[in-house]
Structure formats: structure tokens, C-alpha cells
Amino acid sequence: MLNASICTIGDEILIGQIIDTNSSFISKELNTLGIKVKFMISISDDEDEIISNLERCINSSDIVIVTGGLGPTKDDITKAALAKLSKSESSHYDPGQYEIIRERCNRRGIELSQLNKDQALVPDSCKVLTNNHGTAPGMLFTIPKEGKASNTLLFSLPGVPYEMMGLMPKVAEKIKTEFYIENIYHKTITTFGIPESILAKQIESWENELPKEVKLAYLPNPLVGIRLRLSIYGGSRERSIQLVDSLLNDLKKILGDSIYGEDEESLESVIAAFLRKNSATLSTAESCTGGKIASLITSLSGSSDIYKGSVIAYHNDVKFDLLKVDKGLIDKYGAVSKECVIEMAKSVRELMKTDYAIATSGIAGPGGGTTEKPVGMLWIAVVGPDFCETKSVVLSGDRLRNIDRFSSEALNMLRLKLGIQLI
Predict the structure, then answer these.
(1) CB-neighbour burial class of residue 371 (10 A; exposed 0-12, middle 13-18, buried 19+)
(2) What is the pLDDT of residues 210-238, one digit of tens each?
(3) Looking at the DSSP assignment, which residues form a beta bridge with residue 284?
(4) CATH fold of 268-417
(5) What is this structure's pTM?
(6) DSSP string covering 302-339
(7) Residue 94: which H helix or E strand, with range?
(8) How far apart are CA 227 and CA 240, in angstroms?
(9) Which CATH number fits domain 3-178: 3.40.980.10, 1.20.120.520, 1.10.10.10, 3.40.50.920?
(10) What is the pLDDT of residues 37-78, one digit of tens each?
């Protein structure tokens, strides 16, 4: 099976100034093609480090994809390192990329400086992948493996994410032209409400009986739940689909309504799909979650069809004035209470004129907890045309993690009440 290494270049990644999203995108694209990613590394802006690390990747990989270090400034040294690595003796200006640079400078009213021009200067040892979204061209080098008859394809792409993404179709075409690609099949199902250790115990017998060609991965996420990914490398795609579907049917019998989605589905997306299918609407009243639930729902395209809005009732005055929660009720039970979230949910449902509503009130931390109501305590209410249910949980984590988990717990409570599960 073809394997690949992904290398990002830049001190800004290594010091944590920017997050490397390129590697994630590239690895997904390669997996879709049928290529297994073996390594992901980040390399500093140092020529010797770039060359030595890339040599190691070249000798162990069929494909190497490098991003970053192709800009016009002096700290962008990837091109020079690749010229040395590929033993290029000369360079030339690529006419296609040069024309793109000239036109972009003209449109922006910028003088075509020597630094701009030199972005079109490429080693003679490469094939150019014209970058229509920016000024730095992509480059393809064919480099022999040390002591082996085979070669490695090394792609150098701009570090700017949308420029890199724009070049990936060209990368895919080159790979498909040069190699025979075997099948990789991934299928993911998503669970919520079962801790990872307990989930592993529940499916232990099922996992032990998996065929040897099937690999299982646990992928926990506080906003989503725990994804279970089944992977098969090689073989017929049709057989892989049939085998995985059969295995997942057995898994659904074990986990029941803890399974709610597959692949990229989320709690908010399956709820939105249910509401849209039933011509129903939702509103939220959020205290401790501070609008996180609303943010998750409105991140979905077309969410205005099913979601009317939220009241972020963080201060008690907002609970009193906008949601008409009885002040005496909070004096008696506190804002983090069953009684309070019931009133919040009922009021926002009436205020927004929706079919369903969610309300949250809790203590995200790190301060504010008491013996009776510790940090991590959450009260949720979900209401609908014919029900009003509440739930309290106590979770552990820092403030941001608690807010994420509070939001997911609330969405999952509504999901279960609506009977949404992967059948």
C-alpha cells in the first residue's frame, strides 16, 4: 500500500503561533485517494534541518508533501533547500506563475518588485504546479530513494491553507498518474453518553472478534462524543463496505440509542435534520453555556429554518427581566437548580414561539462552586409540546472544556427525548 509523509515548515508552527491545519486536510485527501499517512512532522526554518528531515521521509515514503516556506521574504527558505536536496544546478522563471504574479500585483496596485518576481523562480529539477490562488507555485520533485530502485514524489505546496487546498486536486492527479493505488475504507459511527473506558468494556467481546484486516480506533471529543472508526486497508471496496456494515449492525445492537450518527454528523446536525423533517423549531436559554449551544446550531448551513434564537441569561437580572423567572424561586433554590432551568426553558419557548426549547444553568469554574453545588454541576431542561424534563450532571474539566461538555449534554438530552438514533 502506498504511504506518505506530510511535512510542515515554519518556526511559527513550532512555537505555537499558528495551528497546523494543513496536515489534517492533506491527510484526509490522501486517505480518500487510498494512501496511508505514516508520518507528520513540523520542521524549523533551517536549511540543514529541512534537508535532513526530508531525506528521512523520502527514504521511507512513496509520497512526501511539504507545505510552507515558499513566501517572498528571506525567512522562506524551502525552495533553496529543495533545490539542494534535488541536486538542481540551475533555476528558471516559470512563465505561467510569473504572469499570475504580475496580474495580481497590477490588480492591487503594487509594484512588481524583485521579491515578487523571484517567487516564479523555480529549480530546473522540478515540475511546476501553477498556483492560481496565490503567488508561490507548487513544485513536484522526483527523487530517488537511497539504495533503492524506486523514486519518491515530493510535492512542495504553499503554506497558506486556501492556496494549498487549491493545489491538492493537481497533486491527486499526479499521484494517480504515477502509482497504482489500493483501497482504503473508513467508516465512523458516533456515540454519546458513555465514558471511553466503559464503552470499551461494553464492546470488548465484539472488538475481540473483529477480523484481523479491520482496525478499530476510539476518537473522543467533548463536543461530539466518542467516534468509533473502522478501517480496512487494501482489498475490494465493495467487500470492505459489506463487511463493515455487517460489523456495525452488530454494534448497534449492543449500544442502542447511544449511537446517534455516522462519519461527520454531530449532535446539532442530527437534531437539525430531525426538526427540519418534522417542520419544527427550537430555541435556547443559556446561562453557563454562554451561547455555545446557539453557536453550534447556527454553524450549520440553513439553521434559520429550524432555529429561532437564544436568550443568554448569564446574569440573574436577565433571567428576571427577559425570561420572567420568579426572583423568589432563585432566592430559594438558586440559579443552578431544576426549578430555575424549567422556568427558563418554558419562558424562552413561549417568547420565541418554538416547538422545543433547551435551558442550561451551571458552574463552569474554576470558581463559584460549593459543597452542595460543586464546579462542573449542570442543570438542563428540555421542553416540548407535551413534555418538560430536567437532568443534573456533574462533570470535571477546566472552564472551556466544561462549557463544551455542558453544551453537548444539553443537546444530547434533547436528542434522546426526540428519539434520534442511528438505526
Answers:
(1) exposed
(2) 999 999 999 999 999 999 999 999 989 99
(3) 310, 358
(4) Maf protein (3.90.950)
(5) 0.81
(6) TGGGTEEEEEE--SHHHHHHTT---HHHHHHH-SSSHH
(7) none
(8) 19
(9) 3.40.980.10
(10) 999 999 999 999 999 999 999 999 999 999 998 887 777 899
